[in-house]
Amino acid sequence: MCGITGIISSSTKNLQQISLINEKLKKRGPDDMGIYQDENIALGHRRLSILDVKNGQQPMFSDDSNVVVVYNGEIYNFFDLRKELIKQGIDFTTNCDTEVILKGYLHWGLEELLSQIEGMFVFAIYDKKKEKLFIARDKFGEKPLYYKNDDGFFAFSSELKGLEPLIRVKTIDKKALNLFLSLSYIPSPYTIYENVKKMMPGTFLEINFNRDIKEKRYYDLLKIIKNIPKKNNFKNACDELRKLMIDSVRKRMISDVPIGSFLSGGLDSSIVSSIMSNISENPINTFSIGFKEESYDESLRAELVAKKIKSNHNVVTLDFDDVIKEIDSILEYYDEPFGDSSAIPSNYVAKLARKKVKVVLTGDCADELFGGYEKYLSEYYSNIFNKFPIAITNLFKEIVKNVPHNSFTNSILRRVKKVINVSNLTPFERYYQMMCLGMNDSDRNLLLNSNYHTEINNFILKRYSKFQDGDKLEKSFYTDLTTVLEGDMLVKIDRICMKNSLEARVPFLDSKIVEFAYSIPTFFKIKKRNKKYILKQTFKDLLPKKTLAFRKKGFGVPIDHWFKNELKEELVMLLDEKIIIEQGLFNYNIISKWLTEHFDGKQNHKEKLWNLFVFQKWYFNKMQK
């Protein structure tokens, strides 16, 4: 795992900025750094050494120095590609995957190389003879890439912080602001800044010295899905999934430095850790967090699995009073508003792991592929609710409306209210409402001043509608894979691990597993209310029986409690009427209403208020400087 940067400009002064932006990525690559500069281009690299630690320095050059590569990520099938290239008469001087990218480009060309690569990556190749820069991002967006193309230069960076010194006028992107307030994150291609973009997954960019940019998609999951034969035999599907997962985990365990796994005790991380344990000759290192507050603690679940697989299990137990002290540094590292609060406890498990290993495997992506989220059952619950007579449902709504929010009722009330709110909607409207973890359209309409409000419904609908051949659930899975996973889950794990100079690998995100998931019917994934059914049946022999029955938790933090206690003073200060009016973004009256209702326990507005809290923290840190 590393960080890469680059600039194209005819100005020497602009090119000299490469050292500054490269230094901003030091946490991504604390082990080594390198810079290349030519007449119209500069490239930078920060290295976290994982493979062939003694060699593999970057930028890396072809034998004639006409091709230069900087690269962030891991190519999991690089051994196979290396063998194939050696058969073709290609010589290698290192054992690292960077050289496979370089020699593969020279031998096959960019598009053929990309068609063969399996991995997580962003790499930039400068071809002197062609006077072009090529930048490619992995199929699903595991590794990030930001770029801007104005003020007389093109620049890119693995993190937004690398480009911040080059942004001369910081303007908030209206679409990004609306997406953040509703989704709690900003999906590609948007960033919070109007003149900076995120590179789309599965694409490559071609940039010449005139700064003309061509974008081309090299991986299209929808086209592949259309040509995949459907698998309707459940046992055969289980057998194939098992083989694919074992192969994926084995490839992701290749490392020249210590490796371990995040083990929450949930189904997905338990499967990955169990497979790792079976493959490894020695006990593996597993890492988890516990909470002193029992309602948030999953450490006993993780311990159950750790004992079964006989891992070297490591746990850090957190007190939320201590966690609060780290909120600012965690939020700041994301560079733009990011409202997934599970990033806060995730920071501690990453910090714990980095003390013993440099690489961890995680259970991310299984929920999006195999139906793990509670929202996928919204139609099931809505159908039950709608079977009752209108008089009874109206009475029930009134009762629910008047139940106060407190520590005992919060969890069930939030779920019940969501079902009620989506019970009479179309499939897309239901999905969209469940997807908006922060504010719904009505909330944003009330909150934002008219010159900052814009619709985001069509942005989500366009992605949802692309999946035309599947059922309603498959549309939801696809939209989550291309939006939620890329914009939220992968961003969270990449940044929080990079903050601690730790590399994270995601076995479920192997393209063969992703494509397999779209070759099986949805009832293999969700059987009535039983989510991730095929995963449970496939790997039940590896796991404790209790693990199969556990209800999904996730890394939660008591935001609603904090806003009434430890963070109340700061929340009120950040949302002070004078500040809100001076900003000119928000309507203070609706903010005041939400605050009052939350403090009085009439409503639980924690998601809305958390997103506002996160945004204001970002605003005063970035826009006021």
Task: Write structural notes for this entry.
The protein is of the alpha+beta class and 625 residues long. The longest helix has 28 residues, at 472-499. The strands form three sheets. Strands 2-3-1-9-8-10 form a six-stranded antiparallel β-sheet. It has a six-stranded antiparallel β-sheet with strand order 4-5-6-7-11-12, with helices on one face. Helix content is 46%, strand content 15%.
Spans where pLDDT lies below 50 across 5 or more residues = none
Tertiary shape: globular
So what's the oligomer here?
single chain
Q: How many E strands?
A: 17
| Classification by helices and strands | alpha+beta
The largest sheet is:
6 strands, antiparallel
Mean pLDDT: 92
**What order do the strands of the largest sheet run in, or round the barrel if closed?**
2-3-1-9-8-10
Defining traits:
single chain, about 625 residues, 6-stranded antiparallel sheet, about 45% helix, globular
The gist of it:
Helix content is 46%, strand content 15%.
